[in-house]
Write a structure and sequence with these properties.
Blueprint: E1 2-10, E2 13-18, E3 21-29, H1 32-41, E4 47-51, H2 52-57, H3 63-72, E5 77-80, H4 86-94, E6 99-102, H5 104-108, H6 110-120, E7 124-131, E8 134-137, E9 142-147, H7 148-158, E10 162-167, H8 179-188, E11 192-196, H9 202-206, E12 215-220, H10 222-225, H11 231-237
Parallel strand pairs: 1-4, 1-12, 4-5, 5-6, 6-7, 7-10, 10-11, 11-12
Antiparallel strand pairs: 1-2, 2-3, 7-8, 8-9
Helix pairs in contact: 1-3, 7-8
Length: 239
């Protein structure tokens, strides 16, 4: 299982939001490129980039930073936030990102999302961001009418085989992973899952060990930046 450090970008800085609330922001650095290098040096095999400006506005405002990270590190990058068109996907891939995460577009423009998945295959992930079992969109500022499981089943039909699952109420709270939500997805689909939200400790990671055959990675943000957990210690849980 991969331990995946998160780099959430807002106005060119590294930030973390509490439950996705833009008014509850903590800034953890002004040099995302250097931080990306540090995670690579500590052994990370994949970085999770989120363009929060893109998520809120639908248009990327961190393209230069993303390109610079891609140029400076040698490990794969996955990028989400504001990817709502075929052009945005192409731009992200051209910037050196290995995998692109579709979110809002999977709800609001499902036929376009299906076409993008068909064209790019495994380079596409879908982020399922859940609040009380319902998928949230547009940077988590709005709720859709689609449940988490409904979206999971829909995108599985498109040929998606891996998702990022986030329980919004746990994101940035360090309250542990949402095992109930994870189990619902595993029960109803054959999707592989990258877990996100709530990880605070080695003990939280140990809770995911029984799911290792389907859970392929864990994204960690606040716990790493607040020194609640170190990347080497997290990686050691899964050998």
């Amino acid at each position: 299982m991969l331990i995946i450090p998160a780099i959430d970008l807002r106005r060119g800085r590294i930030v973390r939001l509490y439950q996705g609330d833009p008014e509850r922001e903590t800034v953890y650095g002004n040099n995302p490129v250097e931080v990306a290098r540090q995670w690579e040096q500590l052994g990370a095999k994949l970085l999770h980039l989120v363009d929060l400006d893109g998520a809120f506005s639908g248009h990327s405002k961190n393209e230069k930073v993303i390109c610079s990270i891609s140029e400076e590190v040698h490990i794969p990058l996955q990028l989400g936030g504001g990817i709502r068109s075929a052009e945005a996907v192409e731009k992200a891939l051209s910037a050196g990102v290995s995998r692109v995460i579709l979110g809002t577009i999977a709800i609001e423009q499902p036929e376009l999302a299906r076409k993008i998945v068909a064209e790019y295959g495994e380079r596409m992930l879908v982020g399922i961001d859940s609040r009380h079992g319902v998928v949230a969109v547009k940077g988590w500022t709005e709720s859709s009418a689609v449940t988490t499981v409904e979206l999971a089943l829909r995108i599985e039909e498109w040929g998606v085989n891996e998702i990022i699952y986030t329980d919004i109420d746990r994101d940035g709270t360090m309250q542990g992973p949402d095992l109930k939500g994870l189990e619902e997805i595993l029960e109803h689909t054959s999707l592989k899952v990258i877990m996100s939200g709530g990880i605070s400790s080695v003990d939280d990671l140990v809770l995911l060990k029984p799911y290792v055959s389907r859970v392929k990675g864990v994204i960690i943000g606040k716990a790493l930046y607040s020194n609640q957990l170190t990347l080497p210690d997290a990686m050691a849980v899964f050998g």
